[in-house]
Design goal:
Layout (H helix, E strand, L loop, with lengths): L2 E7 L2 E8 L6 E5 L9 H9 L3 E5 L16 H14 L5 E6 L2 H11 L4 E7 L10 H12 L4 H14 L1 H13 L2 H6 L5 E6 L7 H7 L3 E4 L6 H4 L3 H6 L6
Parallel strand pairs: 3-4, 3-5, 5-6, 6-7, 7-8
Antiparallel strand pairs: 1-2, 2-4
Length: about 240
């Protein structure tokens, strides 16, 4: 269903999985903390439902080339913006999940001519859980709510990236202000959160947007358990 496609950028080749035809438009998903494998099924579902769906790997993660230096959130947003232009994608639905919401928000704010709608799934970092030790504790709480198979999909990509690259990205996630980025976004913004997400409160989701979809019974990594989620949100349905 999904095919690999490499695109040359000034940061090296960006690898992406793509599938489907753009009958309903292009849908691009920015993954959380550099890893994309856990999102493949949800992207494949979107491709089967009339979207041309894209799942890019940040440089240094997945199958993308290593960049000249370790990247933070703003760097990933810059290279993904360049990737969008090289692929000549416009009027896209841009989805970010977890720390990918911070990347996606920068992309939408910096290139409003390319993004028609922004969807923030499980946005980070909720100010209630700063400084970073609080967020780490909440992340560990979430790990107890997620299927054990989720970690098995993520570990190979984290191992390939290495601890220093992961640390650089994680530190930039804690320092980045998602609310400030969203204030610069001009397209419609939808926030999606799992009802059991210990990293994103309902109150913070509503501060980011008046359009909030809450998924009953689901934790932070909800697309892994509810792969129909992006299509359902686009069609105004709540995944069961």
């Amino acid at each position: 269903m999904l095919e690999p496609l490499a695109t040359a950028t000034s940061w090296g080749r960006v690898h992406a999985l793509v599938g489907g035809t753009p009958d309903r438009g292009d849908l691009v998903v920015a993954p959380g903390l550099g890893v994309s494998a856990y999102l493949r099924e949800s992207v494949a579902h979107a491709a089967a439902c009339g979207y041309r769906a894209w799942l890019p790997d940040p440089p240094g993660f997945g199958h993308s080339d290593n960049p000249p230096h370790r990247l933070g959130v703003r760097d990933v947003a810059e290279v993904f913006g360049q990737w969008l232009r090289h692929r000549e994608l416009r009027d896209i639905t841009l989805v970010g999940h977890s720390s990918g919401t911070q990347v996606a928000a920068h992309m939408a704010a910096d290139a409003p001519e390319l993004v028609a709608r922004l969807v923030l799934g499980s946005p980070t970092i909720d100010p209630k859980y700063l400084p970073w030790p609080k967020a780490v504790l909440q992340w560990r709480r979430d790990g107890q709510l997620e299927p054990k198979s989720l970690v098995r999909t993520q570990v190979p990509e984290w191992r390939r990236a290495g601890p220093l690259r992961l640390l650089r990205l994680a530190l930039s996630v804690f320092a980045d202000d998602l609310e400030a980025s969203v204030r610069r976004v001009t397209c419609p913004v939808t926030v999606v959160r799992g009802e059991r997400d210990p990293l994103c409160t309902r109150e913070w989701a509503r501060r980011l947007s008046s359009d909030v979809v809450e998924l009953p019974g689901l934790p932070h990594a909800f697309p892994y358990q509810a792969p129909s989620v992006w299509v359902d949100v686009m069609q105004g349905r709540t995944p069961s």
